[in-house]
């Protein structure tokens, strides 16, 4: 197959690098023409090893390049909306890392520019492409459990991020739970209408001093009548805990954690098995490839993207409401 | 071993009969001298087959019998507190089915009488004696998961009760969730300080017409800082769903459902395994024996009972608060 | 229900006591009139506590008692066939512990006497009544896996028996594997036509010195074309390991071990779950009751017993062939 | 990293293509200079898309190319030994697909040439690199189960191969079970000294007519005293069944099948989960990459290869003995 899409990648931090390598190894029909990064010098050798021709420090070179069809916005969070806006204005298709922004108006401005330009826009909610969660969604969609009544999401990190990161992250609800808000919408196929947050600082008092929480149970009401509950912790001693359950009128579906192996060791001490895969790079490895496959398919074949700008907006709205609920101690309604 | 305890059983409905048979088959040192029931005629043959000498229709015969050491109060719910009160006044040890009452003052009156008489009092929260939940509690107590942070309880019935029962049951929170409120206290080793209920009528509109709900997600805050969440449904298509999870600073514990067999059938259609044991009589069979073992042990050896009158009171208080939360749409604090 | 069967129990060792207690607690319609034991004095109090009227040291008192309908032969192995023979001659129904004998001719003599007397005869292969294995057999019978092709049985004890016992036990094949030979016939629904034994002394050299083996893999050929394999060990460090698998033209069935609880503990050290239930008394607790239920049902309602004298004979024949195979190092055919 | 190894691939059938793509996507430091195939025309476009410069129909071009350091022998089975021999003579490092040959003398001739040339030689027993089996081996090596006593391998294909393939495959023992013979040696860390085969035609009579079997239970004795058992079927209705168990003096280890997802669906019909991953390309996907990683590491850093020519020879010897055992109906000893 000939290379049919020419792209630029803006930002070559951990996630930008991951995408670049996944593209080089899995999508022969995609050419990464240019990668921009504030520290362009440092990425030159790595980019060359992937067969990328250009490296630059100014992302505008990518946006102004008429040969480039699509951009991946992998820069720091606070630049996502501005760069996406400019890319849309320049007629580029956009794959934007989550979150688009923490400011709803700025997200809406991106949405307008995208609509106007008629370009494809996809947000990087990669967990929708995970083999387990995708299977749950399929079974729900096929009606195997009838109408969803209760949606449960367990999402716990193996370790809290550095305290410096906590301070600038926008808080656990917008940094970590935002994935779960997206998952709740994805699994239920419905919109959240109310949120109630019960949260605490139980893992590390420093997180509390930084104005954030590290443990939370968040109740959601959905438009279709279902009730959801997310439980989060910044520190699960046994590793990355990512499970969901959807319960409905005709049955229920659960998924458990993936493990490095299925080995079970039985001794006089007890029966031992593997801990979950350590963290998101191991656990969601394939999902990062699958989300790009769908994005490139949408661009090449003029299909809708599977995770739209609206899907980027809604979890931010829920996250802000969840924070408000935590601060006021009351449930918070979400306008449509 | 000689028969060392002589007891009377008040009420021979489903649960009274179960206790009587469990005692006859498992506790050679316990003599059931008398069983009272409003329909004494109907139980005479059955009682005889168990070796029980007397059957009567008036429970006062039991309470006034100086040979009887202890009574099992298995009559209809609205008589529990009055009979327990009279039994305490008569100096009998008391095993009382849950709930003691739905009226807090009447429970407190029983508690006072019990204290004054210095008799043993145990409430029939049998799930504490279940092999799975007991193991979870042990592991928590042993500090295996450190400080508890999140307590999760899933409790779903296979079928809603008859609508006539729903109308007089006191509502799902007091009839069904009350077991889960007890479990939450038992597993966490702490008291509930706040409750928030999100509930709905999703199973059967008739339940809604009867003023009750059939689906709920209830968030609890505990004195020790932990957060709890209970999810309930009146109808799990696949059967009785009884799982818990306790997550803490050093790890987590989960228990899954018990099944009739461990058989797994793999065919071209898929991989099939057993549904959970059908309902509480199958699922909690052994726990009904174990709770009595501990009660008789407390009586014989003058030990504290494992589920006290306070343990009977607290879940009622939480249940009433959970209902208030549902009605007001707000979290409700629980005074100590 | 009135007491409809009057029985005597011959031998009150571990298994005789177990049966007596199971009967007293579960079968109100069965009266244990007499228990005989060489050490009658030592069992008197225990027998009385069960409501048994007579205790004697000579089993002939039971066999000659015209009021007794059925006997349970629970005496030492070397007396099973003689007592069964006498009981049949006396017209008693017989429940005989396994094995009937290690001598095929003596088993056949029992079978003739049983046929002649027209009494019921059941052998104590209790594992057929286990919830797991019964479920496997049902699924096989229902044709869920089509024609059986491969039958696999894992059977490992937690500890070897005392070396004194090993010396008189008849060898592992007749003492331990005999249960698995029965299970192989039960699960496959077919007869064994050839056996090949690969065995070794890997657990304890003392067992080898006593002329026995402690580890074995035994291959079976069945009349219906299927192939079977049993693996045994006298010592599984993690406890009693009892699993089976039946694989056929349309699929396969496996059963795993039962555990005391379903609790799973996850910590930074790993994921821990329960070891199997410790040994046969815990693991097969209910099966001992179920086999008697069927025996009493056969006696009361003139039905065939579920485990006949032929079922007692065949595993002994296979066991002797398995030993011959081990000694000669060659497969051994089994005549029909 | 610069490209440090230049290789040629001989044969671009299914496995040759798989290796070429895995190398292009995962090993930047490996350059595939040339691919030879009898139908060179048909692979030209595909090879170009991977960045391969040359395509040819004569493998000798690769063997005679002084720039090429190593070759992958992926041609038809009957050419493996001859090509490997020539490659060794030309001083190339060799990765040879299994089996090297079915003729022991021809394998030995290759071994001599390899030794003489001092080149690296690795056989494509990819399953040793599977996450599950590798974990079992590690645990055995770490002594977690003490001395191995019983090794069990279940290996069942989802569908028999075409009957035309069966006729030329060398028979199930050399075509399919050969992987299990390798696994037996790998897991036990010991050599097989005796083999006994019980086999049958139960899946498809056409396989029998072609002189082969489709179902087998094969018992192995190991030099270290352990006993092994392999069970095979050409058709597991539920898919590819690949499990192992190692049982030893201190415990046991089992691994179960990998599945596409961990989703469990519970309905009124039962509890359903995923079938195993369909066949070897899905199931052992990563192992094909890992075996090459180790081969390239051995070449680059002058380390021993993890699967040597001896490891290629031994399973063929065992396979031939297993066939002899099937034909004679007797156990067959294996000389060292």
Automatic annotation (TrEMBL), chains A, B, C, D:
UniProt keyword annotation of Ribosomal protein present: no
Coiled-coil regions, chain positions: none
GO molecular function, one term: oxidoreductase activity
Superkingdom assignment: Bacteria
Residue ranges constituting the Gfo/Idh/MocA-like oxidoreductase N-terminal domain according to the UniProt record: 5-125
Domain GFO/IDH/MocA-like oxidoreductase: 133-253
Keywords in alphabetical order: Oxidoreductase
Annotated family: Belongs to the Gfo/Idh/MocA family.
Protein name (database record): Inositol 2-dehydrogenase
Gene that encodes it: iolG
